[in-house]
Design brief:
The complex is a heterodimer of chains A (262) and B (387). By secondary structure, chain A is mainly α. In chain A, 77% of the residues lie in helices and 0% in strands. Helix content of chain B is 22%, strand content 33%. The longest helix of chain B has 18 residues. Classes of the chains: A mainly alpha (262), B alpha+beta (387).
């Protein structure tokens, strides 16, 4: 086979990456637009960034979103770890197939249905909707993703390591934290990141389960866009993209360093 | 068959004064009493009773699936017996989880903790005991010196060779000074040369520490070299327990004779037995077999004679007729350097193995393919088996 970049390869790369990144590049460019009109270039300016930091509603939404993300991702990771341990370790217990099927069901269930059912639950329980209902809902949904990621790693983990720890005088629970957890840590971290990103990104479920004072960033952006795209939204989106990119690059560099040490 | 039941015969080349199993006053360290373990209806261990004495190097030997590893895991606490009792130093182990049992195991896969350095692997068991930090450091240094791994304390397991990993696993298991060390196929992953060296190292280590070792292996050579006593297992049961020489020279069944080393087995009928000699007729040997044997066999009953290849002599000139003599033709020669194995086809069509040590570099008349030969063996060279 011919190696290197052929014309065809270059063309498909350009088209593919164009599809992926052209909208994002446009968004970043227009966030530095001096004009109020989104589609008309009026010169370079950073004034939307300045006004962004004076927009209390938007800042509030960012703060709420991050808090929800942090808490729900943590809950989801802990619960997902438990679920993964149960699935991998318990062997063939009664109802195992049902349990493993049920844990993956929310992955394929339409978000609208999930959101609606959660809303019905909160209403019938008489819970006032707000910060905690969104957090719990996000934890519920993202837990499945966390369980899948951790389960994959855990089933490749050699159980004899835990037996060896117990044999050397370590009680089973302690052995899990001293031996198993450090070895599946990369998967646990990945699961947390995934859950956090999913929570950050979610519009549908948050719309169903939030209440006054708990408007998340995607909800805020969506409602503002319906009134017309403001360049402030471009600015906040650019900041988000920058944050996510920094995060991804940091994780990559960290892993590279670990691999070199190893 | 213990030594006491046949006082005239001195079995084997090794004479050891260490024989606590022959002393009725000796207290066993570990006692299995009628232990049974089933997995999903399949019996893995079927009523095993066994005593292991302090300071003993004991081997469980058998093919894979014979229940030897299950027996060891029962002792370590990873499996619970369905019935029967296991005691350690007189104390019933029932209901004691693995982390409370004063035995340590060296796993076949070594099971080193991949995220911990060599020294922290070795220190793991000591930390669980709550040993003070400075003492842990001393013990780790001592262990590293013992298994000759000084200088590798900071390495991670994946930075070590197979042999080094094996020694870390060993050091980790003996560091907490367990009452007993369990070794599950400890040398299976090493190459032949290293395996032989390590066998002798294990023996030296066991002597030095005065610790009781229980080794599980499917390799008969490993068991013979290292152990004071061997228990040969077959489908969940112990078939024979004895010193390596007992098991080799006086197997109690065709299974044991065949499992340990090479053997030629001749079927025949007992014609005469007087408590010192057994005479057998056999289609393989026109002159019959005359064997030193104190078993009083029933005349006319079927018996088997087991003769090891190295105890059979190969002659190019016809010896005088008599018992224990067979004629045949050289079918194949396996030259191993130190030994030569001859496959001899008897007149009956059976193939017999005979082996000879190549003690001389030059021989007057080398044995060649298709040579007509006669095989003989001494009256005390074989064992008469009834099962």
């Amino acid at each position: 086979m011919k190696r290197g970049l052929t014309t065809f390869n270059i063309a498909s790369l350009v088209i593919g990456f164009g599809f992926l990144y052209l909208p994002i590049v446009l968004l970043v460019i227009y966030s530095f637009n001096a004009s109020r009109l989104v589609t008309v270039w009026g010169g370079f300016s950073t004034k939307w960034y300045a006004s962004l930091f004076r927009n209390e509603q938007l800042l509030d939404a960012i703060w709420v979103t991050f808090r929800i993300g942090l808490i729900s991702a943590t809950i989801a990771t802990v619960l997902g770890t438990f679920a993964a341990v149960a699935l991998v370790r318990a062997g063939r217990f009664k109802g195992r197939t049902l349990f493993s099927g049920m844990i993956f069901a929310p992955l394929v269930m339409p978000e609208v249905i999930l959101g609606l059912s959660l809303l019905l639950l909160f209403v019938s329980l008489g819970l006032p909707r707000g910060f905690w209902t969104v957090t719990v809902s996000h934890a519920t949904v993202t837990m499945c993703y966390a369980a899948v990621v951790i389960q994959a790693r855990l089933s490749a983990f050699d159980r004899q390591l835990e037996e060896a720890a117990q044999d050397l005088g370590c009680p089973p629970i302690k052995a899990f934290f001293a031996i198993t957890l450090p070895n599946i840590a990369p998967a646990v971290a990945a699961a947390w990141m995934l859950a956090f990103t999913l929570s950050l990104d979610d519009l549908v479920i948050a719309s169903f389960t939030s209440g006054p004072g708990s408007t998340t960033l995607p909800m805020r952006i969506y409602s503002q866009v319906r009134l017309g795209v403001s360049p402030e939204i471009n600015a906040v989106s650019t900041l988000l993209i920058g944050l996510v990119a920094t995060g991804v690059i940091a994780v990559y560099l960290f892993q590279m360093r670990k691999r070199r040490e190893a | 068959m213990t030594e006491r039941s046949r006082p005239r015969l001195n079995i084997g080349a090794v004479r050891s004064t260490f024989a606590p199993w022959a002393d009725p006053a000796a207290k066993p360290l570990v006692r299995f009493e009628n232990v049974v373990k089933r997995f999903d209806g399949e019996t893995a261990v079927n009523g095993v009773s066994l005593d292991i004495y302090p300071g003993e190097f004991f081997a469980l030997l058998g093919p894979s699936g014979c229940g030897k590893t299950t027996l060891m895991r029962l002792l370590a606490g990873f499996e619970t017996p369905d019935s029967g009792r296991i005691t350690l130093a007189g104390e019933d182990l029932a209901g004691k989880p693995p982390h409370q049992r004063p035995v340590n195991m060296m796993f076949q896969s070594y099971a080193l903790f991949p995220h911990l350095s060599v020294e922290r692997n070795i220190a793991f068991g000591l930390k669980q005991q709550g040993m003070p930090k400075d003492q842990i450091a001393d013990r780790v240094t001592e262990m590293l010196a013992l298994v000759r791994l000084d200088g590798l304390a900071r390495r991670k397991p994946h930075q070590l060779s197979g042999g080094q990993r094996q020694r870390v696993a060993l050091a980790r298991a003996i560091a907490p000074r367990p009452k007993m060390l369990l070794l599950d196929e400890p040398l299976a992953a090493l190459d032949k040369k290293l395996r032989e060296e390590t066998q002798f190292e294990l023996m030296a280590l066991q002597q030095q520490l005065g610790m009781t070792f229980l080794i599980v292996t499917h390799d008969q050579e490993e068991a013979m070299v290292t152990a004071d006593r061997i228990a040969v297992m077959r489908s969940g049961e112990i078939v024979q327990i004895g010193r390596p020489a007992d098991v080799y020279e006086a197997p109690n069944s065709r299974y044991v004779a065949d499992f340990i080393g090479d053997v030629n087995i001749f079927e025949g009928k007992a014609e005469f037995a007087d408590g010192t000699t057994v005479r057998m007729s056999s289609p393989e040997a026109p002159g019959g077999f005359d064997i030193v044997e104190d078993d009083l066999l029933d005349v006319g009953s079927t018996a088997w004679l087991a003769v090891r290849p190295e105890k059979i002599e190969v002659h190019l000139d016809e010896p005088p007729p008599g018992p224990n003599r067979m004629a045949g033709k050289i079918e194949d020669i396996g030259y191993l350097g130190d030994w030569t194995t001859y496959l001899v086809e008897l007149e009956s069509g059976r193939t017999i193995r005979a082996a000879r040590a190549n003690a001389k570099r030059f021989v007057d008349r080398p044995v060649d393919w298709d040579d007509k030969v006669w095989l003989t063996f001494a009256r005390d060279a074989g064992v008469v088996l009834t099962q």
